[in-house]
Amino acid sequence: MKAAETTALPDARGRFGRFGGRYVPEVLIPALDELTAAWEELQDEPAFRGELEALLRDFVGRPSPLTFASRLSDRLGYRVYLKREDLNHTGAHKINNTLGQVLLARRLGKGRIIAETGAGMHGVATATACALFGLPCVVYMGEEDTVRQAPNVARMQLLGAEVVTVTSGSRTLKDAMNEAMRDWAGSVRETHYVIGSVAGPHPFPSLVRDLQRVIGDEAKVQFRDAEGRDPDAVVACVGGGSNAMGIFAPFVGAPGTRLVGVEAGGRGDADGEHCRSLTLGAPGVLHGSLSYLLQDGDGQVLATHSISAGLDYPGVGPEHSYMKEAGLASYVSATDAQALEGFQALGELEGILPALEPAHAVGWLLGGPLPEGSTVLVNLSGRGDKDMETVRRALGEPPSDRPRRA
Ligand SMILES: *Cc1c(COP(=O)(O)O)cnc(C)c1O
Q: Is the preceding peptide bond at 231 cis, omega within 30 degrees of 0?
């Protein structure tokens, strides 16, 4: 019953219970309606599905493998399997979404793509999809982030995208989001705005979930092949929540499977030191929808911190807020230090250097939070190449000869 309830969401107004909706300028409503209708029609259209599936197979490299983590399993007393989104082209799950949205934009006759990015990973995945189809691409990025994430700026530019540096406000992701919204409001007839997580106004939370669901659909079959049943727990890190929603989707409401989302606990629970929107925040509006959010008493969005740039976001997708309140998933956190332990454990025990985002999920598991003998499916959302410098600095090892920035 629960599963049916959940897959029926969002409702016609784009709500997951009280969460979600569309808190956007009036001028964007027709484009959001058009996108909603197009996705409803195209998601089951054989030609569209076929084109997307061929791209996921031939360009991204899907299906991604499911790897049994045997030494980590021995250490923990669990049976741990890793869903290897780190092996996708561009190194993370984000490409599943950007390819789908760019394909959709082409069907809608939109000749220009915009996106916003914090760490740069979504910008790179969007620029990649645009290069593949020869579409012009503009990526908004806060000035702070262009400095912190300089290699990703170079990647986007080499892929032919224009990176627009945003100098307003705190010059980070939320300011880049505002600029992208402003661009879209003025250019909506020819432009599609590729949102990178299960956030934003309806239909983005469900559109991105549906595009990322391929992770869970593959993993469910792979896990059954390996263990003959569904996992006791599915664990994923939660920034905006797209890799988690993607792997959770086919298990939501299944009685024997616990879904666990791991937020970034940063340096501790004080304001500005973490990204625990679901576990320490309160409902509010950000980026066009109502969801849990880190805000002060006046509703101003708080600063955030995480060692992993991809989790450094003050909000979370509205479906996670719904699942939290409905008891369909539980949400926990792992600190920067726990993420580093998770990173080292996977490197030393499994020969895999993960991105710092999914290292939070592994770090949480290292604390032994599940009953002995549990079978666990972990979403390894990305690879660690982008994080080498951060990890070396955090572990106090000699820096590489790449110039460092404060
Ligand atoms: C961007 C990113 C995330 C966080 O985004 P979600 O929408 O929460 O999935 C997690 N892992 C990796 C590797 C990322 O690049």
A: no
Q: Three-state secondary structure along 164-182?
A: EEECCCCCCHHHHHHHHHH
Write the pLDDT tens digit of every residue in 294-338.
999 999 999 999 999 899 999 999 999 999 999 999 999 999 999
CA of 244 to the centre of ligand 1 (A): 9
Could you tell which of 212, 237, 383 is best to mutate to test the pocket of ligand 1, judged by most ligand atoms within 8 Å of the CB?
A: 237
- With 80 as the cut, is the pLDDT of residue 24 above it? yes
Contacts of 165 (CB under 8 A, 6+ apart): 141, 142, 143, 146
pLDDT at position 4 is 42
Tokens of 267: 């340096």
The two beta strands, 162-166 and 330-335, are unpaired
Q: What is the mean pLDDT of residues 143-160?
A: 93
**Sheet of 112-117, strands arranged across:** 162-166, 137-142, 112-117, 191-193
> If you compute the radius of gyration of the chain from its CA atoms, what whole number of angstroms results?
20
Measured at the alpha carbon of residue 354, what is the angle toward residues 351 and 356, in degrees to the nearest 5?
145
Cα 244 to Cα 102, 141, 208, distances in angstroms: 22, 24, 11
